[in-house]
Design a protein that fits this description.
GO biological process, one term (chains A, B, C): glucuronate catabolic process
Order of helices and strands of chain A: HEHHHHHHHEEEHHHEHHEEEHEHEHEHH
Pfam families (chains A, B, C): UxaC (PF02614)
Number of helices of chain A: 18
Number of strands of chain A: 11
Radius of gyration of chain A: 22 Å
Number of domains of chain A: 2
Bound molecules: zinc ion
Helix content of chain A: 40-55%
CATH class of the largest domain in chain A: Alpha Beta
Distance between the termini of chain A: 35 Å
GO molecular function (chains A, B, C): glucuronate isomerase activity
Oligomer: homotrimer
Chain lengths: ~425, ~425, ~425
């Protein structure tokens, strides 16, 4: 419904705003790609090419980035409709001078330009700060990572804890926690102490802002007594059999315990809900993951949110089905904020649907905007382009319906892109460091 | 897609049409607010303010309406994006002369105007009839209410029976039914007789048009033998333990029995599906309710609808997920009509999505439009504004797609807003009483 | 959002494109209606009329087509809003000279015209080829059908196998397979051999392109050992009791076995997911079917898709809920293509939502467009009209958002309507036969 002119005018304003990127996998010590083949190698694109009929060995067996792209050329038209492919071409246009379609006639120039530009000193800073006006980028960091020396004016770590919950019964998890902390683990209590020290280090030594975990659709969260969990842990540690139900109890106990660590350390707990791993087996890495919907995926978190009013939970979800239920949670729980649009929901139509609903239902201060999930900073260019357009379209719709004035619309945009994440992740203190 | 001009033209026509409001909680003897603080106190707004960070005691501990609003002033921008807040400001604009935003600079004038206007004699009639052209408002009435003397040209009662199903195992329910009916209850048969007399009184003494119940997502409906239910009821009455499964059987038996009472008394059975109570525990009253989705929430009603072809079931649902399934039921069951947009689905985007789908799938005569759920008649102003805009947008879309002529579009609107509820709730007979 | 002008321009182009119709119930030896009452008798319309209050006996008890229409006249306005009714009138406008609404004043002329035209020699060819530019129409054929002599330039058979899975435990199924094949069935192995010969005959004698089955929402697919299934089959054949779980195992075993037959014979396996039969009991034939959503309806197919990479699975689904999950499957599984918009999802809004999502997420070469599900070729006129408009609207949106150029948009349309189904169903070889 909104007129093209209004959308473009709002978009122009939105694209000048400062941004916080609430979730990425950027490497803090090497945030950019080496050349366009890294960008091309994004698992979204790999999955689409295989799906569109490109033979597995031609794509994944390629020895070099150049060879991979060259092999893919005949298959590119077959994915030329997807939002991912549009994003890839947009990166090439914005950063590497692409004119027209990426293909036979153009790819070598793009490759050459990318090789040159990506290796310029300060390239990632140019992309992140100059091109995108992203003021802070959240990272994803393993518990055994050493973050000494990362640029605090640019990045903020997030302590990723998936294996500490989902593989808590495996001896190798315990071993690696021991190694990372130098603490001996002979019991559940030891394990929690060691993990607690990781949380403390991330917060106090590394300036982490959040802990993050991706949970499968059927994850169930419920309070489990310490003593019960301790016995199960002992059994797992001793290599004895743990039943499915025991494993569920142990996981949930630890999940609650880590929530308490978030509380103790003032960390936001970022929950990414709904992924099923390795759905398609013969896939490129990460390219075979998908999702399904368990009707209790959100319901199971209610008790936790009620018990930890002091922890800010930042939720995102991998399906469109439960968007509405999530919006209701964001509306009623003061400690529940809602983030971005993740993976299979990061598509223009799904973003617009979610944003429209959230802007209608949830206090605007509870919404975080950009959630790029980028592995290379160049991909953030595409994500920002798609997200800001969807945002401008939603806002324009509200303006035309007379629900928002244009001023309110732009204020909302600024809240989503910048002020809310600053508020939720406690980035104010560091703001002096950042460019203003 | 529809042009703004077409939307506004249709909206102008739609807003002149007579309306039936199919569900409210208005008090028949005092339908309006005392002043704007009653309107401000709507649980939608209370929930949003708490969620947006307003401290619980500042909001809910305020001693007066004035104090509550004054305390809330700094938090208002934080919810200024929501459809609820737009509705509140719209009420203040339409009824109390608000210009600009409701806040520091304006609230006292609005308050003063509201105090004056709300106490004018005939104020609620002015709002309902003059401002809104609402010709009949359905109420929500407890089984022990005395409705003698309500204005039949304005209201139509609905017998609300939630505790008679959902708390049928509690001695206090039995006691209160005894008290309300003066009939002794020593068995299930007595209980049903007593409840049957309530249905009869509501229909024949009070002119009720429907019975209504709100059911949780996991409610299951299935035929249960009288003898089985009677034994369970005896056990409950004697204070003995009733298992979950027995309780489920007793509830379902009574649910079927009340359906038969609807049939005997010519009442529509209004089913409001999907609420979960007290999801967020530290909430304002009703502000902590939310919903989840049980895949069998609609499926479970199929047997009932097949067994009682003579009862009109008027369904609404609290999630967007099962809208489509509900539309299919409305399409195929002659005795299933579909009502409005309830609570978490009463948002512009959700209304538009549901309306578009229903107008495509369901014979128009099966659709009831406005379902304001208002507690004060002033809120109906906001609900009508949001609903009619969404309706006009949907109709405009159909007109631009050449699926509807403008005439058909307006005829559809009139059907939804007025003629269908008149037909379904049997309001024709009383029409002489109503203004035309 | 897209401008009306752009939609109409794209629509003009789209409506000139050649089309493959991926699923119908046309009779190859008599593809058209006898007169407009056949077209009127479509179960979508029967269901709507009953639902809108037309008495059962007036509609279904009518002795002639004329009487049925005459009886229905007073009820037509009550369904005049639905997409189905628009489709019916569109057929009458396009093929039988209807001006204005179909009703009292016009129906007899339409009837007379339809009687004349439908009996003209080559009428179905005129509709399918001249009016619609449909180059190939997939059929639905029972395993005991003799297709000798059908027009291979116009049609392509699909072997429908519902009873061979869903009623595999019934003696009459076995008996009818014996009769159809002339092969004796005394064991599961015999049964599979017989069914295998049907697959072979369909592919090699009749030129079938696919096998098709409609599965209920709770169907579960998982590998079942031959020996286990054989014992269950023996028990069923002997008329002994088979438990629900055994029946589930037998069904699944056969479902996997038939997938292997698809592989052996180079047939696409068309899975239509989610119908519940006879939801409303007092319905017109097929008019009481609806759907519900089982959260594992798609998940259950993952193993099968992984095990048979050589089979192209063509999926469609009867609810909007799992559209997104289906899109993710279409995105990652090379052997999963996604078809059309089936039954309760064949409505303008649902088509647009699904198309938008699929065009963003799935490589375009994985998408089949038209899936008319027609019983008479005249209905294809309505289905094409609705589908192509929704397609043009989606494409126009993408063009206005600058995600697609107009050229790419039209290329996408041609892919969906024609080139993809030609590719998936292997129609190239026969293309010489078809008009170009
Ligand atoms: Zn991530
Ligand atoms: Zn209510
Ligand atoms: Zn079919």
């Amino acid at each position: 419904m909104p007129s093209k002119e209004l959308v473009e005018r709002l978009l122009g304003e939105v694209r000048r705003m400062p941004i916080i990127d609430c979730h990425t996998h950027l490497r803090w010590n090497h945030a950019g790609a080496d050349d366009v083949s890294d960008i091309f190698g994004y698992h979204y694109i790999m999955a689409e090419l295989l799906s569109a009929g490109m033979p597995h060995e031609k794509l994944l067996g390629a020895q070099t980035g150049r060879e991979r792209i060259r092999n893919a050329l005949p298959y590119l038209p077959r994915i030329s409709n997807t939002a991912t492919w549009w994003g890839f071409e947009e990166i090439c246009r914005r950063l590497f001078g692409l004119k027209g379609a990426f293909g036979e006639a153009t790819w070598e120039d793009v490759f050459a330009t990318s090789e040159r530009r990506c290796r310029e000193p300060g390239w990632h800073r140019e992309v992140i700060e100059e091109t995108l006006n992203v003021r802070r980028t959240m990272l994803t960091n393993n518990y055994d990572e050493d973050l000494t020396g990362y640029d605090r004016s640019m990045f903020a770590p997030a302590l990723r804890i998936d294996p500490l919950v989902l593989a808590c019964d495996r001896p190798e998890t315990v071993a690696s926690v021991q190694k990372a902390t130098g603490m001996e683990v002979r019991s559940l209590s030891d394990f929690k102490k060691a993990v607690g020290s990781v949380f403390h280090r991330f917060r106090h030594d590394f300036g982490a802002r959040s802990s993050a975990i991706s949970l499968p659709p059927d994850f169930s969260a419920f309070p489990v007594h310490e003593g019960d969990a301790a016995q199960i842990f002992d059994r797992a540690l001793a290599g004895r059999r743990v039943t499915d139900d025991e494993f569920r109890r142990l996981r949930s106990h630890l999940f609650y315990a880590y929530t308490a660590f978030c509380q103790d350390n003032g960390l936001v707990f970022q929950l990414m809900l709904g992924v099923d791993r390795l759905v398609y087996l013969n896939a490129a890495p990460s390219g075979g993951d998908a999702f399904s919907t368990d009707p209790s995926m959100l319901r199971t978190l209610r008790d936790l949110l009620n018990r930890y009013p002091g922890v800010t939970f930042d939720l995102c979800i991998l399906n469109r089905v439960q968007m509405h239920e999530l919006a209701a949670m964001g509306k009623i729980f003061p400690n529940c904020v809602v983030s971005g649009h993740w993976w299979y929901t990061f598509y223009p139509g799904a973003i617009r649907e979610a944003l429209r609903e959230r802007l209608e239902m949830i206090p605007v201060v509870k919404l975080n905007g950009l959630f790029s999930d980028s592995y290379y900073c160049e991909w953030t260019v595409a994500k920002v382009a798609v997200y800001t357009r969807a945002l401008a379209e939603c806002l324009a719709e509200k303006v035309e319906q007379a629900y928002f004035s244009e001023d309110r619309a732009l204020w909302v945009a600024r809240r989503l892109l910048y002020e809310n994440p600053v508020e939720h992740f406690g980035l104010q203190a560091d703001e002096q460091l950042a460019r203003t």
